[in-house]
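Rotation project, supervised by the postdoc (A.L.). Task for the rotation student: set up a whole-complex structure prediction and record inputs and outputs verbatim in this book. Inputs entered:
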Amino acid sequence: MQALNRKLWRDLWRLRGQILATAIVMASGLAVLINSLSTITSLQESSQAYYERYRFADVFAQVTRAPLYVLQRVAELPGVQSVSDRIAKVALLDVPDFPEPVMARLVSVPEHGQPVLNRLALLSGRWISSGHDSEVIVSQAFAKAHGLVPGDHFSAIINGTRKQLDIVGLALSPEFVYVLGPGALVPDDQRFGIIWMGRSALSAAYDQQGAFNDLSLSLMRNASADNVITALDSILAPYGAIGAVARKDQLSNWFLMNEIEQLESMSTILPAIFLLVAAFLIQMVMRRMIATERSEIGLLKAFGYSDWQVAWHYLKLVLLISLAGIVLGSLTGIWLGRFSTQMYSEFFRFPVLLYRPNTAAFAIGAGISVSAALGGAWGAVRQAALLPPAEAMRPPSPPVYRRGRLADSRMGQWLDQPSRLIIRHLMRWPARTGLTTLGIALSVALAVMSLQWNDALMHLAEVSFYQAQRQHAVLGLNEPRSTRVLAEVSRLPGVLASEPMRIVSADLSAGNRRHRGGIQALPSDASLQPVYDINLGPLRVPADGLVLGSLLAEKLGVRIGGTVHVEILSGRRPVFDIPVVAVVDTYVGMPAYMNLTAFNRRMQQRPVTEYINILLDPAATEPLLGKLKAVPTLASVTLKQAAVDSFHATINESMLIYMFIFSMFAGALAFGVIYTSMRITLMERGRELSTLRVMGFRRAEIAYVLLGEAGLLLLAALPLGLVLGYALVVLIAAAFETELFRVPVFIENSSYAYAGLIALAAGVCSAMIIRWRLNRLDLIKVLKTRA
Amino acid sequence: MSPRSDIPLHASQLTKVYQTGEVAVHALRQVDLDLYAGELVVLLGPSGSGKSTLLNILGGLDQPSSGEVWFYEQNLTTANQRQLTRFRRDHVGFVFQFYNLIPSLTARENVDLVTEIVKDPMNSAAALELVGLGNRVDHFPAQLSGGEQQRVAIARAIAKKPAILLCDEPTGALDSVTGILVLEAIDRVNRELGTTTAVITHNTIIGQMADRVLQMTDGRIADEARNTQRLEPSQMQW
Ligand SMILES: Nc1ncnc2c1ncn2[C@@H]1O[C@H](COP(=O)(O)OP(=O)(O)OP(=O)(O)O)[C@@H](O)[C@H]1O
Ligand SMILES: [Mg+2]
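Outputs recorded:
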């Protein structure tokens, strides 16, 4: 086998460009796979360990105020393991050197140490001490965003009273791995933070002595969260419960799990595309190689090599190509995974989020890559192994060309011979031509998909921040107040217009389908925060009846004219049936809208509101914000511009880099396919091209035969790729659709154009390499040998 | 030794050395040769004596290690790749042992390949007519016999009305009857178009159709003989 191995090394060297091109395609798929799998493991393992060690609760409930003796009944519920009660409120902060009011979630912790559930990971400083009710522990991300350290101070409006708070420690909590402030689409650590305060300080401030308003439960193994929640809701109902949620619906955990799910769908769709194309490329190369070496194979067999030895010789080449792909892909995957983990640690706050490139990911990746390669090579190698030696020694019957419809049509009469050469060659192997076109088209599709992320998110931002919302800020009141408050707000300097809005928790059901969410009540002429349909634009709020978001309508299985059963979870907790009068399409959330007047009537309340949408005079915004920091009845201030800014900042930070990386992968795919196709044509036609050179054709003229073919394939692939790109975007958008948001299928023309340009650039790169090879054609060699 | 405006190909002191590793192969050693306008020269010699090397250098496919080749008043040895391509394109027709037709093009299209890129070519049908294939113009190479393919190759070589026709073992892969048909085509082109022609062969009998017969051994022209009378290929036999 010594001599055969030497042949193998020469083949490898001769085909190095080809092997590299195939390996790059394989490596891209593998890198995406390893990145997804290892990031999934990192997130999963980190969260699991975190949740366990810091006793993340299984069920979460909120009430307005419940006496402590209720806890006994909760603890006795079957399946409940431990109960942890506390006070939790949202408050406005005034952080030095930051012009806008900042929102925070105030959460009570025992002064003597860690709570039973949802313990804190204290990263620096110390625990609060009893008797010092101004001491707080602050979430680390918030502190970092404002440059705060233990020893610093800031003030907060706690239940209408301004109070100075002293930071004694920085911490993280399993409850707040992902922190989303009200009205935000992405985390904004500057404008929303978590503050842990002593229980006695908070209960005194909010008049909750001997009571609690927030409850966390851990469950026994095998206990059903649903059963516990049903029982818990009925115990807590008299105390203003807004309905308990299980861990899977807890906001932070939901986002974390959703991210893992998205990574999982990424880990199947994209690597599959790359590996299928890699298999196809290997298939093409091996077929070509074995066709060229027919007579050598026959000779080997005549000398007594077995079928298996012949097959093994070629399989070794395939395995070496895979090996190159695996090494390259693993290295890229490790790099990408480390980068992703770092990226994730900016959004998901863990005490430690370690990137551990897990062996399983590599094993799976390597296994799939080798299988794809062997799958691709199988047919060709089998053919070589089974070739009867006598037949192999005979020269292959020359390829039969036929006069094609195209080349001989009236239009074809105008074709020059080199063009005819191209067309006949493409028509001679229609399957290969088709698959190559498909391969290039897939790369274009992939580029479209990568580039549209930005389009889709920009569109999402445009629609949700500007078209669906016209207000500049949303003020949240600390409790429902008479709509007369609007008049006061309008009098504030800088406020141009104001509108009331209510958002109230509710259980909606139809038949046996349920949804725990809320009802958003708007005045009939709402213009600052209208009912908005992504296709139809702003709509008038109907006088009565329910307007449902389409995802919610689907979840409940109702249509216009159907009836929804509503159980309001606050106030007098009215229960009523209401007809669905309209269904609107939205990108974010599962809204249910009602007319404010009708809603207040159903709530058996006088006209009240919890939120006020306002329009601001840009020139007077700063002083107004300064004033708002000190308004005692305000629980929240959400500035739209801030939400917009942080959204864009997040996209620029993370998305653009991924877009770039994935566009590179798409380019690699295009390069792999185009280069392979040209290289194989060069192998097949090297002799013809040399003959043309001998006859006096210039280099540019023979390059035309090769490049023209690639150009034609590219030309066919571009429109197909754009269509496939659209389909891929629809597919991925559907895979990513969740209850909280769906990514719009929205692609700018420029993205289509850039996707095409990426493929063209890959084509130009391949062409330059091939051109370089063409210049090295040995003219004399072909004259000495038989075809 | 200077260029002459009446000599299509003039070579002087040509040497060609192939350096492969330690060994230097002297394929040509100080060869002097003139090909005169309109003559038909046959090159004989044992395998490895340098015939193909000489022909390739004369046709502008290869460069000598030293010495000069002139095409009329153009020095080919100082020409660059582009100029050599131009020279082959405008003035040289090649015919090889293995035909080197393009399998995806028909006979006519193979000839058109050349007529499309040169000034004032023959009609491709006429060229095929000249080699006796007027009725096979629309056949692909795979549908033609070896002799027919070689005649298409000749038609393709002469359709540009080249000054020089260089044939390297054109009958090497053919039986004698077919070989004679091919030689007749070459002979006819040489007579009717006045194309200066050089034919390499191992078959000494073929020397009878030449004006001059050159005998190569070991990289030199060892012997030169001028025929008093050229035989028609059909009069030859082997
Ligand atoms: N590319 C090359 N590298 C090294 N040596 C070469 C090369 N091409 C030809 N030779 C050597 O040059 C010498 C002359 O070769 P050439 O092909 O001209 O012979 P020839 O007379 O045409 O032989 P034949 O009748 O067998 O075709 C031979 O010894 C050959 O081995
Ligand atoms: Mg030879």
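Student's summary: Chain A has four domains: 1-50+248-397, 59-247, 418-469+643-787, 495-616.
Supervisor addendum: The first helix of chain A runs from residue 2 to 14.
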